[in-house]
Structure formats: C-alpha cells, structure tokens
Automatic annotation (TrEMBL):
InterPro entries: TPR-like_helical_dom_sf. Transmembrane segments: none annotated. It comes from the Bacteria. Residues 94-108 have a biased composition (Basic and acidic residues). Gene3D superfamilies: Tetratricopeptide repeat domain. This is Tetratricopeptide repeat protein. It comes from Blastococcus colisei. It holds the Pfam family TPR_19. Residues 94-114 are annotated as: Disordered.
C-alpha cells in the first residue's frame, strides 16, 4: 500500500513539474524549463510530450545541438510527427546545415505540418 502511494505521488509530481516547465517556457524562460525537463525525460525517456517541450526549450535557449538530439529522438519515437520534422529542419538550418534540413522539410510537408 505504501509503495502505491509513493508511486502516485511521484506521478503527480512529474505532472506538476511538466506544467511548471510549460509555464517557464511560456514566460520566455527556456533555460529554467530545460532544468526541469531534463529530469523528466531522464525519468521517462519515451514521453513524447516532455521530449517535445525539452526540444523547444533547447531551441529557445539557443542550445541547438541539444535541440537537434532531442528532436532526432522524437522523430525516432514518432516518425509521423510533422511538427518534430519541421522543428528538426529549422534547427539544422540555424546551424547552417540546410542541405540536411531538406529531407525533413519534405517529410513535414508530406505530413501536412505548418
């Protein structure tokens, strides 16, 4: 019984932390969001929502290599995620790697991503 309570408390804390990171990102403080989201993604590596917000936070704080890594992982988890494809293409372009971005732009277009 005690383990279950602890597990439920942990899940609530994870959700609260996700919401707190979302608030930091919305307030234009992506570095603070990164600190929270790195722990969340470490705890739940397949959590697509947390990984997406982490990638956005890295991008927003100009940590482009880390944004690229997070987006690459997201594309591997969800190949049909047009938003992730477009964001990865833009991250590559900001690193002056436009030729690598082309295939991701094409895939995003095919998936109907804006």
């Amino acid at each position: 019984m005690v383990a279950r309570v602890v597990t439920q408390r942990f899940e609530i804390d994870m959700h609260s932390e996700f919401l707190r990171a979302d608030l930091f990102l919305a307030m234009g403080r992506p570095t603070e969001a990164v600190r929270i989201l790195e722990r969340l993604v470490e705890a739940e590596p397949a959590n697509e929502a947390a990984l997406e917000m982490l990638a956005r936070s890295y991008f927003g704080s100009a940590q482009l290599a880390k944004s690229e890594d997070a987006l690459t992982r997201l594309v591997e988890l969800a190949p049909a995620n047009g938003w992730a494809r477009r964001a990865l293409a833009r991250t590559l372009e900001r690193q002056s790697r436009g030729s690598e971005a082309v295939s991701h732009h094409r895939m995003a277009d095919a998936l109907g991503a804006k």
